[in-house]
Amino acid sequence: MKTDFWLERWQRNEIGFHKDKANPALVNHWHTMPVDIGCRVFVPLCGKTVDVVWILREGYQVVAAELSEVALDALADQIEGEFGLAVDKQTVDGLILYRAAGILLIGGDFFKLTARDIGPVDVIYDRAALIALPPEMRKDYAQHLMAITHSAPQLLVTVDYDREVMDGPPFAISTSEVNDHYGATYQIDEMECREQIDEEVRFRDRGLNSMMQTVHRLVAKK
Ligand SMILES: C[S@@+](CC[C@H](N)C(=O)[O-])C[C@H]1O[C@@H](n2cnc3c(N)ncnc32)[C@H](O)[C@@H]1O
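A: This is the predicted complex of the input protein with S-adenosylmethionine.
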């Protein structure tokens, strides 16, 4: 999947994945993550998710990465409006950096980011990042994510559905695939698995009558 696919979706405002409210998976399960207030949360492939605002409001710092400048401009505006602060935008070494106290939004290709670019990470929130990527990119994504965050704990949200009926994104990912990517490094706990199709009616239109959402907590093995 080429980066243009996503950039064009943002240009055309085809962003059905974007939600106006903080994701219940985050709100309901964040407290189970082994982190303290003030910790630094990495949000890969963040779009303009209001989940970032929720995390900031809860008292954490955020570093988030996204390809689309359209998305990050909107997210920076939202942060400015919500917290009454100025977000500084600058291009540095080919990355677009949006900065304010406790906030770093990085405009660039996730796969090219280094541990130095994102800085220290205490915990990762992955909603619609792993599942945004086709099968051939997911192993690299998982490996790169672990490398640049030193396998920080993750709250990971995946979906699964009948692959004969629909193709992604969002891509269907089984619990066994999550285990293939992360099982060697992390202890993986399934926090919740529930039917989501009634909240995602657009996928009914694509032929699905079930879409299961699973929330996983990943904590590095000792
Ligand atoms: C399905 S959306 C999810 C956005 C966000 N996590 C949310 O919950 O609303 C996937 C996002 O990943 C971004 N993306 C895709 N490939 C990327 C890459 N290589 N580097 C950075 N961002 C990428 C897209 O622009 C898109 O905004």
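The mean pLDDT is 96. The chain has one domain: 3-220.
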